[in-house]
Specification:
The chain has 241 residues and is mainly alpha-helical. It contains ten helices and three strands; from the N terminus they run αβααββααααααα.
Length: 241
Amino acid sequence: MPMDDLRRHDGETGGGGEAGNPVFRGIERAIHEHRVPPGTRLAEGELSEIYGVSRTLVRAGLQELAHAHLVTIRPNRGARVAQPSPEEAREVFEARELIEPRTAREAARRAVATDIERLHGHCGDEQAALAGNDYGRALRLSGLFHVEIARIAGQKTLLEFVDQLVARSALIIALYWRRERARCDSHSHGNLIQAIARNDAEEAEGLMRSHLVDIHSALHFAEDDPEPADLRHMLLPRTGP
């Protein structure tokens, strides 16, 4: 089964009641694929028409998305796709840098041939999406690669954390990424697969840590911009030697 066709269910990717809600599924996927930018208004009536479900189901889906920090709901103002602050963005990636090296280590210890086959298939799907200029799908697959490693690690609580953090990362990348393509590079993923296939826990842990630090370093926050240089200082000739 192609990785892009995976659906959440208990025991695989942090299963829960939201799995059967088309509003939750649809909006979450659109966020992963950067089809709905942060701050987008999510009107209940419009969502009801789009997904062909009752407003009760729409509200339930929006509540689940809010619980996952993907949507904000304010009284009398409705729901919008969340807009993570720079502080929240840093916290999310710092959490990933703490948790995911551990899941990569455990995945390397536990992985069997079918797990490696799934990871290779996943990277193949990602490359196919890139070849077809479907960068939104490639980004989503990049995130799901990390979730899949957490699944292989066999620790359900950490899997749920990684699943949520990866989803929140899609919003953060949409707001703050400053590289040409907002995705994990396939070279890093390929090296991770090789380390996991060799059951090299230490290398897998180190590769995951450096990979996430690299992604984090590509985030650019406006508040980090240096103070603009004084125009007079820039234009007038300097004195001295």
